Amino acid sequence: MKNILVTGANGQLGSEMRMLSARYEGYNYFFTDVAELDICDEQAVMAFVKENDIHVIVNCAAYTAVDRAEDNIELCTKLNQTAVGYLAKAAEANEAEFIQISTDYVFDGTNHFPYKEDDLPCPNTIYGMTKLAGETNALEYCKKAMIIRTAWLYSTFGNNFVKTMIRLGQERETLGVVFDQIGTPTYARDLACAIFTAIHQGVIPGIYHFSNEGVCSWYDFTKAIHRMAGITTCKVAPLHTDEYPAKAPRPNYSVLDKTKIKMVYGIEIPHWEESLEMCIKELKA
């Protein structure tokens, strides 16, 4: 029986992994967050992986506050870069497979066509730089390391864009949302399913991209959220990026090409609107 460690288990993706684990029997799971295992403590990580004979590590832990990262460089680096190195070294020492979750922010978003895995990364935020450095550590320290870059993650768990737009739509009569940043929403449950597929079939090392299918702006995304949530009293207006100043620059275009993960693992990925509908139905329930 394979022993699987999922770090960051209280976050959006970790919570989805925990919930879906009931469907994937035949594995022994260890779901940890900082209270159970501090991934910034190298000795603790090495000891935990060895003592529990871990066969697969899935790292869902990260510092994801993009704007705050510009000021909290030390903590962001520790979580997104250094800790990933500790997990990768522990995986290698135990001959385990390692799945590291990364981000579209490793690119600067100046493309006008979907980013492929071998496109040259060029982050322009502290968050993106530390996540890219984490990728490098994972691949350098663990032979069986798999990187999955994702984007625009949301879930029924935790705080995210979908929940915020529903709340604001219920509270306000008008709402401004940027229309000139293009990407693809990702339902964390779909990503969790893809991770379980990789665990089940076996990790094939390298970099992969995963988001839902299709393309939209944050404005389009918000309009769809309100439509599906039955919000009719809030008028959503399109904004330019420069009308909504943020400390860290956002990618103008961060659509990810998913061809590789679909071919290698034989998975079908739902369109973002289908998955959004499922998530909102669950939130309503």
Strand order of the largest sheet: 2-1-3-4-5-10
State the total count of DSSP E strands.
12
CATH class of the domain at 2-158 and 186-211 and 255-270: Alpha Beta
Q: What is the name of the CATH topology of the domain at 2-158 and 186-211 and 255-270?
A: Rossmann fold
Shape category: globular
Helix content, binned percent: 40-55%
Total DSSP helices = 10
Low-pLDDT segments: none
- Main sheet properties: 6 strands, parallel
**In percent, how much strand structure appears in the residues?**
15-25%
Mean pLDDT: 97
Instruction: State the secondary-structure class.
Output: alpha/beta
How large, in whole angstroms, is the Cα Rg?
19 Å
Compressed to H and E, one letter per element, the order equals EHEHEHHEHEEHEEEHEEHEHH
What is the CATH superfamily of the domain at 2-158 and 186-211 and 255-270? NAD(P)-binding Rossmann-like Domain
Oligomeric state, counting identical vs distinct chains: single chain
In the CATH hierarchy, what is the architecture of the domain at 2-158 and 186-211 and 255-270 at level 2? 3-Layer(aba) Sandwich
Distance between the termini: 35 Å
Characterization of this structure:
The chain has 285 residues and is α/β, with parallel strands linked by helices. It has a domain at 2-158 and 186-211 and 255-270: 3-Layer(aba) Sandwich (Rossmann fold). The protein has helices spanning 12-20, 42-51, 66-69, 73-93, 126-141, 161-171, 188-201, 218-229, 259-265, 272-284, and strands at 2-7, 27-32, 56-59, 97-103, 145-150, 153-154, 174-178, 182-183, 186-187, 206-209, 216-217, 235-239. A 6-stranded parallel beta sheet has the order 2-1-3-4-5-10, with helices on both faces. It has a two-stranded parallel ribbon with strand order 6-9. The longest helix has 21 residues, at 73-93. The mean pLDDT is 97.
